Request: fold
Amino acid sequence: MRTKQFLSKLEHDRITSAIREAESKSSGEIRVFIQRGKLDADPLTVAQKKFLRLGMHKTRERNAALIFVAPRAHKFAIVGDKAIHEKCGEEFWQRVVEGMRTHFQHEKFSHALVGAIEEIGNLLAEHFPKMSTNPNELSDEVAEG
Reply:
């Protein structure tokens, strides 16, 4: 699917609202990044590099998560920073990925992203509760590039 077509089907406001809601319950950060064009490399490797380029590893508690989607390649990946991964392990990420895959296969793109954001948000709220000073360290908007 062409990236432009994918983006036109996304409910950007709904996704941004889900990120804000998830982040309101924790000190964690969640971002969604849509890769334009072709993707010839492994999506997880590209997502890990994008995580660093977006400065997501610089959050105060190392508790940021990136949902990376390459619509043209029909691939996606999720990257969680060190502190999150230590709390949940690989099984959590695999469960979120499988849930997203099912929705993507039925072209329920926004539902896939919102569901993943909610699951990650619940994990963040459990392990990284909101603090009295809870700055929003990263943009909540869907990023693309």
